[in-house]
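Standup notes, structure subgroup. Blocker cleared on the adenosine-5'-diphosphate input:
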Amino acid sequence: MNKHATYQQLRSHLAYLKLTAAAEQLPAALEQAEKTKPGYTQFLHALLDVEVTATRERRLASRLRLAGFPSTKPLEEFDFTAQPSIDRRLVEELATLRFIEEKANLLAIGPPGVGKTMLAIALGLKAVHAGYRVYYTTAADLVARTSRAALEGRWQTTMRFWNGPQLLVIDELGYLPMPGEAAAHLFQVISRRYEHGSIILTTNRGIASWGEIFDDSTVAAAILDRLLHHATVLQIDGDSYRMRGHRARLATLRAGLDHPAEGGEFSRSHLGNSHDR
Ligand code: ADP
Ligand code: MG
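Run returned:
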């Protein structure tokens, strides 16, 4: 076979094997090789490296898309000084993703705006980058979809779906009440994942008041039992990060009134800071 025919066949081999990136790179790689005369191993390595990099990037992009994260803020952007109640070392330990290997869970509890969703997604992003399959949903969405699936005779498929990802993020449990059937569906998802795959669950309700989210305290107890058996609990008690701007503006306003430039008469008495009296 002459050189040209071999080249053509090589290209079609690469196409047949769907090594698209390597096929595209081939002419340039050969031209380069004419000049630099690399060894056989070196040449093959360089060519396949292009393919591996392209495949890795494609898979990452696909895992990211499938995860359905509503934001992409990384953990590095989380300001720990703004939230002193968070144990930073605990979060850093979680960021090693050992908990996913151990099929353990994370329960993040705290009032609105303290960064529960951001942390859950940031850890989810780390997991996606490390090669894990991750899926983000809210508790309300999870039960709505599961109930619909049950009605439409797709129960097994849906259960397989919720069991698929190695990390399932269930955000915002507790904002909406969960009547009996919804609670039972959530229980099914959580108990099927028990010791199979990790869950990050965020909630604005302390464990003690989970009875109020669910009509049935037995279901609440059963869910907690599965969830907490292998779990880290991250309790965040701080001010809302969303409200910071407002608080800062309020503080500026107060400071301005406390020390009026013209030395106004009304400042203290009208603001009435209790410690001034
Ligand atoms: P929660 O889920 O607890 O209600 P979020 O995670 O949605 O709170 O946080 C509200 C907003 O504030 C988001 O835009 C989030 O990125 C941001 N945020 C919260 N806490 C922090 C923090 N410590 N550092 C940086 N951004 C934060
Ligand atoms: Mg949230």
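Discussed briefly. The beta strands are 105-109, 134-138, 167-173, 198-203, 231-235.
Next: hand off to the docking folks.
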